[in-house]
Structure formats: structure tokens, C-alpha cells
Amino acid sequence: MIQDAEVKGKVEEQKPQSKLFKTIDTIEKSESLQRSMQPVPSSSSTKPEEGFSQDYFISWKKETVSTICDKLSDRQRSAFIFELLGRLPANNRLFLVRNIQKIATVDFISELPDELSLSVLRYLDPNSLVSATQVSKYWNKLINTECRLWRESCLYLRITLPYKPLHPASYYKDKTVSYLRNLRQLKRKKGCVTRSVSDVSATPAHTSRTLALCSTGQKLYSGGDDRYLRCWDRSSFSLLSEREGLVPSCIDCTERIVVAGSFNGCLLVYDTDVTRLITTCSRHMGPVYDVRCSTDSTLVVSGSSDCTVRVWAITDSSSSCKHVFRGHETMINKLILLDDRIFSLDIARVVVWSLSEKKMLCDLKPQNYCGKDGYFQPGLFHTEILTNDGKQRSVIVCGSSHGVYMWDATTYALLRIVKSPGYVCAEHIVGAGSAFFAATYDDGVALINNMTGDHELTIQVPQFNNTSCGLWLNNMSPWLDGRFEETDTQPLFIVTTLAGDISAFYLQ
User: Fold this and answer.
1) What distance lies between CA 150 and its chain's CA centroid?
2) Is residue 459 a contact partner of residue 505, using CB atoms and an 8 Å limit?
3) 416: pLDDT confidence band, cut at 50, 70 and 90?
4) Kindly report the CA angle at 60 between 57 and 61, in degrees rounded to 5?
5) Given a cut of 90, is residue 294 above it in pLDDT?
6) How far apart are CA 212 and CA 249, in angstroms?
7) CA-CA distances (angstroms) from residue 438 to 126, 270, 492, 493?
8) Of the listed ranges 100-104, 378-382, 412-416, 481-485, the one predicted with least confidence
9) Bridge-based pairing state of the strands 436-441 and 359-364
């Protein structure tokens, strides 16, 4: 029974109000319920009557609630609430309907200790974590000041990060938000706009097929069947200089030299303006299909259809062949010069050579596929990826007849074979990075997630001819290597045409 309100000396010490009743008090104030109560002289009756004074109502409410919550069983409490709801007038029922969600909702993040709250938030994916910062000011402050949450989000997205020194939480949050924003933009973009050399000048880049492309800084180099090696401004596509000579089959460049391989087995070394021929390297017995320059411009590596890899020493006025690597049985399509090692690719294997020891280190071969021998496509790239434990790993990427192979560049262990859905022409990759690689198909290019194999973007490119090699620039796009801080003003890729033009493609 409810104790007599007039026996104030025997009233038990009041318990603190629970969060539920604090919420009810807040709601009552918002609905101006207390202002509607008219002060009436207190009565000795224990039965509540309309017009109680404010002090008496508060005392009676606490005692009644304490009795209902502490002395009644669950079944009795439910029966009491059911009967009470049945007798409430319509306006009070409407009040409950409007505010029951506020009463029932508990903000566990603010109720739990910060350590436990952060442990729960660590299970959120990056998209959910960004959304969680908008729940309330308390959530925003707690999440945005926790460096570990945002750093783990970057690792989850495989964003390349510096390991030392550690940065504040805002640094990693900006990386995460920028990545997600640009990834959404990438998925929404379904096509490209182009800008070609013929848009700037009245004629295309070359009067016949353009066979080779290379880029460094703000300069773009191209070679065509018209026997011209041309230097372009990469931003405006304006012609800077040109050189007439042999038909270039491949081009590589540094900040000091430009090296062009040719179909007659020679290598021509020019200055960066292609106005002065520095030296000529001529020892190959067949067309040169790929050349690679060292970063200090003192070494050039070339691969040819004569199945040899040659290493050339380059000076300011001469060149000499330092070594010849033999071991391939078919023509060499692509090369990678990585520190003291050379990776050379033919259709059947990737061979790793040591420059200092002058010997073969490893031989990588494709696996069988559907009972048939696999084969490699002429696309070989080196990139850095982020592992699940947050470490950077140097990998070698190569397209094949049944997927894209990824090997550890140090141990040469096969990490995985990425098989993308849909039809991609024998996984002929034309670019690789930490987040995506680009692969060609019949009349376009697909940007494929290098972890899941999902197509993030597929673009039709009418100018593309998938039967030719060396027509794509590899490191033109920020989208390919996951560095989403770049802007959309950078071209996604640059492609040559059979008509001799050069076109840059931008996401639209």
C-alpha cells in the first residue's frame, strides 16, 4: 500500500531518479505539462487528485513509482500498466505514441566507459564509422579523437600510410573520408571524356600508327610508324620537339635521358628534348620489345625477340654492353628493373635475374587451367600493396590466361590469383597499383579491385586495339594506385589509336 503522504517523518530516503524518469521529466517539460497544473491546497487523502501542488505531486510520484518498480512482480507490473493504459484519455495515449521511442532508446556509447565504447566501435567498417560521427556530439568527439580507429580504417581500406611518426586522428580520418568519397565518385562515373592531340592541332600525333608511349613529369613521349619520336606537353598536348629516325617499338625515360627501342634491334639514347642523340646500342638480333632505365640513368636494360636480356652502361657520350642474360625460349615481352634484379617476361614464364651475381634467381610459371597449360599476357608491373597486418609488401603483377598473378617481390611466393567476374580479354593488364589494376577487354578497359576481383569501373574505348602491345601508359592515373587525394583533372589513362592519334581519357 502507498504510505500516507502526510507522515513525512516516516518517508524513506528518496532514491535517485533513473534515466527513464529523467527522460519522462524532460518530455513533460517540453509538453508544458507542469505549467498546466494549477496549485491547490494539499489534501490528507492518499488518492491522487487533480490540482495537487507541485511539491506534493513530486513526492507522491516518487513514492508511487518506487512501489510499482520495487514491490510489484513483473506480472503485476504488466497488469498495472495494461489497466492504466486502458483508462488513459486519448491525448495521453497520443503523448506516449510520440515519445515511447525516446524513452526506450538507450545510448550505450555514452553509458559505457570509453574503453568499452571504443572496443565496440572498432567492429564498424569505414563507411559506418564515418556515419557514426554524425549521431551526436558525444559520438563525434569520442570517435574523432581516437587515432587507432581511423588508422585501422586506413589499413582496412589498404591505404598506404607512413609508419613513423604517428599522426593525429584527423590525419587518418581525412585519408579515410577522401578515399571513400572518391571511391563513390568512381563507382558513379560510367564513362570518359577525351582530349586528343588532334583537338589541339589540325593533324593527329603521327601520320600512321602510334606504337609507343612514355611519360615523365610534364612531358609525354610517343613513337610511330612514321619514324618520328615526338615530345609533347602532357597537359596541353602541344608539340615540344621531335626527332626523325628509326621506328620506335618501345620507350622509357628518366629526368635525364629518353631511350627508344626499335624493330631493327637498336636502342637510341636521347636527351630529354629528343634533340640530341647521345649514343646507340646495337647488339640484339631481333626487335626490341621493352626497355627499362635505372633511376640514375646509368643503366639500361632491354629485352628482345632474340630471347636475350641485355644490360647496357650509359655515359654522357657512349654505351657498352655489360652483360647478356640467356635462358628464355620465346621472345621477351616486358621487363622490370627493381634494385639489383631484373624481371623478364615471356609467354610461358617470368625469370628473375641478379645484376650483381649475373645469374638466374627464380623462375615463375603459370598454373594449369581447365586441364590446359596457362600462359602469360604481355603485361608485367611492380607495385606496393598493404597487407592485412598493416605492412607494406612489394609485389609483382602479371596478367595471364585465367587471372592476374600476384607474387611477393622478395620471396617470389605466389600471393593470389585474382579472377575477375565477367569477360576480360585474357586478363591483359595495363596498369597496377595498391588498390586496383586495369585490364583490357574487347573494346575497353576495366578497373578491378585487386583483392576481391570486382569491377569498380568499366569503360568502352573505341580507339583501343587489343591486338597491339605497348599502347597504354601505366602510371598516369591516381585511381590505379589508391591515392585518392589526387583530383579528377589527372587523366585516367592515355591511349594511342591506329590512326596515329593520342587521346587522354578523363572520368566524367
Assistant:
1) 15
2) yes
3) confident
4) 80
5) yes
6) 6
7) 25, 30, 10, 10
8) 481-485
9) unpaired
DSSP 188-208: H---EEEEEHHHHSSS-SSSS
Residue 61: which of 32, 89, 85, 28 has the closest Cα? 28
457 touches 437 (CB < 8 A): no
What distances in angstroms separate CA 428 from CA 165, 331, 337, 401, 407, one per listed residue? 39, 17, 20, 8, 17
- The letter for the amino acid at 47 is K
C-alpha cell at 184: 563513390
User: For residues 23 and 100, is the Cβ–Cβ distance under 8 A?
Assistant: no
> What is the percent of the chain where pLDDT is above 70?
70
Out of 32-46, 298-312, 344-358, least confident range:
32-46
Poorest-pLDDT segment among 167-176, 192-201, 221-230, 321-330:
192-201
Q: Return all residues near 407 (Cβ < 8 A) that are at least 6 apart.
A: 350, 364, 395, 396, 398, 413, 414, 415
Distances 393 to 52, 292, 304, 337, 398 between C-alpha atoms, Å: 75, 22, 30, 17, 16
Handedness of CA 152, 156, 157, 160 (dihedral sign): positive
